[in-house]
Amino acid sequence: MKFGISIKLGILAGLINCVAWYAFAKSLGFYSVEVYIYRNYVTLAVLIIGIFLSIFLTRKSKSGFLEFSEGLRSGVLYSLMLALIIGIFNYVYFKYITPDTIDFFLSEAKKSDFAKNLKADELNQFLVAERSTFNSFKLVPPVLFFGLISSLLASAMFRRKNPDAPLEDN
């Protein structure tokens, strides 16, 4: 099975993001909020740079010509691979590497003003939702959204039609 450049770059970027996240957690402490702030910055940077690189390399592989739809497909595939790798690592991170991190942050949240305004049932629903497996994939929608927006922009920038291509009938 042959994987395209977008899929390979998306997997590589996801792994880079995961290594950076773990390195931040290891150096700053697993119970530091700054880890998650830096992780989000790295994710956004890897997403935007990777989409432009993926679309540029797709154009280069097609002799310098790229249709808008091909560029969009390349960027969205890259975003999808990145989002899936991040979601899987998020699950592994909170399930096996630091399983008590969520409990720590939730205990801190109970002490906050946010929790004082909630009823006991609402607070319990919030706690159960934060511990769910599905919560590991909560970064997937924003990564895909920003990936789609970036892909649209990059596809428009790198679009270049082949003058020798046959004309399409409408």
Task: Give a verbal description of the structure.
This protein is mainly alpha-helical and about 170 residues long. It has one domain. Helices cover about 75% and strands about 0% of the residues. The chain is built from seven helices and no strands. It has helices spanning about 5-30, 35-60, 70-95, 100-110, 115, 120-130, 140-160. The radius of gyration is 20 Å and the shape is elongated. The relative contact order is 0.17. The model has no long low-confidence stretch (mean pLDDT about 80).
Give the topology, please.
Blueprint: H1 5-28, H2 34-61, H3 68-97, H4 101-110, H5 113-116, H6 120-131, H7 140-158
Helix pairs in contact: 1-2, 1-3, 2-3, 2-7, 3-7, 4-6
